[in-house]
Amino acid sequence: MKFSVITIFPDLITSYTDESIVGRAQEDGQISVEVYDPRNYTDDKHDSIDGPPYGGGPGMVMEAKPILRAVEAAQENSQFTIQNSQVFLMSARGQQFDREMAQDIKNDLKHAIIICGRYEGIDQRVVNALDPELVSAGPYVLSGGELPALVMVDAVSRNVDGVLGNEASLESDREAAGAPVYTRPKEIEHGDETYDVPSVLLSGHHEKIRQWRIRNAKSKNQNSKNSQ
Fold first, then answer.
1. DSSP designation for 45
2. Range of the domain at 208
3. 3-class state of residue 212 by DSSP
4. Domain count, the chain
5. Rounded CA gap, 125 and 32, in Å?
6. CB atoms within 10 A of CB 20
7. Does 104 share its domain with 172?
8. Which has the closest alpha carbon to 227: 188, 200, 189?
9. SS3 content of the chain, % helix, strand, coil (to 5)
10. Residue 62 resides in a domain
11. Is 103 among the domain residues?
């Protein structure tokens, strides 16, 4: 699985993708993450990539041409066909990203090209020319598309065979995402309270533990007092 991220802040992407699970997956050749900076594809001698909006308004708008050229470069450098690729634009107007979308991307694509906007947005002609899939990280506004892009890269990568190194971890993701977890010691004191590990987790009964995790993953109140 290949990811090409279009961003004017490459270090925001690589500082994350070079580490931990995603970093190891790249070292093992299971995925690849590359970054394209639109500033490298501008005709402006100052490498400017934004301008004031036509019709007036606050802020600046990212120009279309540098982004289109960056996407073209990502496509030209890909060993995968257009049919196995998809351009995504991180946008508050898009479909909210979720686990099902992450699995679909992994199953249906070999190459995801992810455009990260900044400032007041991206020139609409990028959307008109590329017809990207608009994707949102959630019902809120962020300063740019880099954080949502990293969410997509991480979530999709976890579904790639061998990335987690343990298929049980992926199955646990599906069944019990968000379930509370505990480690040693079995009992801790904080203030006037004592907090214990739920007894079922110490039982060694794998099916009961699995059911407990599924049940508590759906619970809004996950403190140890009512998770026994």
1. T
2. 168-217
3. helix
4. 2
5. 28
6. 10
7. no
8. 200
9. 40, 20, 40
10. yes
11. yes
For tokens 């968000």, the residue is 178
d(CA 43, CA 176) in angstroms, rounded, equals 51
Check whether 222 has a pLDDT greater than 60. no
Structure tokens at 112: 């995801």
What residues pair up with 6 in beta bridges, in sequence order? 36, 115
How far apart are the C-alpha atoms of 102 and 90, rounded to whole Å?
Answer: 14
Examine the fold and report which residue of 165, 180, 207 is the final residue of a domain before the chain moves on: 165
Closest CA to 32 of 71, 74, 75, 3: 3
Pull the structure tokens for residue 178.
């968000």
CATH number at residue 126: 3.40.1280.10
Domain for residue 227, yes or no?
no
* Alpha carbons 123 and 139: distance in angstroms, whole number: 22
Main-chain phi, psi angles of 51, to 5 degrees: -155, 165
Query: Over the stretch 86-119, which tens digit does the pLDDT of each residue have?
Result: 999 999 899 999 999 999 999 999 999 999 999 8
pTM of the model: 0.85
Please name which of 174, 156, 179, 162 lies closest in space to residue 227, comparing C-alpha atoms.
179
**90 neighbors 148 (Cβ within 8 angstroms):** yes
The structure tokens 């400032």 sit at 119
Pair 127, 205 in one domain: no
Where does the pLDDT of residue 78 fall: very low under 50, low under 70, confident under 90, or very high at 90 and above?
Answer: very high
Q: How many CB atoms lie within 10 A of CB 54?
A: 8
